[in-house]
Inverse folding.
């Protein structure tokens, strides 16, 4: 069964450093998403991406965050200057379309900011 | 905007007992509703989805959910709990454009032997 692949599975970074989280969505999917889950809390929507541009973003997704689909297969989330509160599990998801399609989630990248 | 509320952050049942995890939604448009399961240190796995076809939806691992518009509910059930069902369960909703799935706070299911 097709999978969404995320790398790395765990990343530790120092506060103030830039991090890039990588995702390879399912190949024929057109819609891409990033979510985060702070330890013990709910899964929160960050951003959706379609046709090479952001289609929706939440209030969490401020100027420190950016997304990119650099080469037609990868989908990345960049955090420019990490803060302690950015420590969370970050999930990438993709979807074949709108309406009645569910999302396929990756297994996540655990980001720890020290 | 759409949202879901999961009643009960923690549910504990005995093995073989009925599992009932509650989810109520709020949506200004006909919703699409989903249940996801998260096992420890893993990602989110789709259990089932409601997409305006049959109101009773059957999913994987013996779970099912019924969409009740009059109650704005989409509760998840399983007739007989198994130890392997212990996990975190998330209800989620999207609207027409499916662009921003919103999750509930999650319910942790514990299954006692």
């Amino acid at each position: 069964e097709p999978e969404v692949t995320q790398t790395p599975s765990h990343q530790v970074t120092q506060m103030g450093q830039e991090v890039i989280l990588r995702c390879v969505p399912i190949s024929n999917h057109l819609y891409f998403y990033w979510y985060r889950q702070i330890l013990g809390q709910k899964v929160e929507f960050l951003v959706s991406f379609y046709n090479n541009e952001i289609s929706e973003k939440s209030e969490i997704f401020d100027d420190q965050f950016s997304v990119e689909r650099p080469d037609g297969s990868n989908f990345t989330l960049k955090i420019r200057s990490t803060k302690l509160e950015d420590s969370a599990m970050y999930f990438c998801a993709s979807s074949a379309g709108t309406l009645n399609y569910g999302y396929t989630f990756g297994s996540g990248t655990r980001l720890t900011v020290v | 905007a759409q949202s879901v509320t999961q009643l009960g952050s923690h549910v504990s049942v005995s093995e073989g007992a009925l599992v009932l995890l509650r989810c109520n939604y709020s949506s200004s448009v006909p919703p699409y509703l989903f249940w996801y399961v998260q096992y420890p240190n893993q990602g989110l796995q789709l259990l089932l989805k409601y997409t305006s076809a049959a109101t009773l939806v059957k999913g994987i691992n013996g779970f099912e959910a019924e969409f009740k518009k009059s109650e704005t509910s989409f509760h998840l059930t399983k007739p007989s709990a198994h130890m392997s069902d212990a996990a975190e369960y998330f209800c989620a909703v999207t609207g027409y454009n499916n662009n921003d799935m919103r999750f509930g706070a999650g319910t942790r299911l514990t299954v006692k032997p």
About this structure: The longest strand of chain B covers residues 19-26.
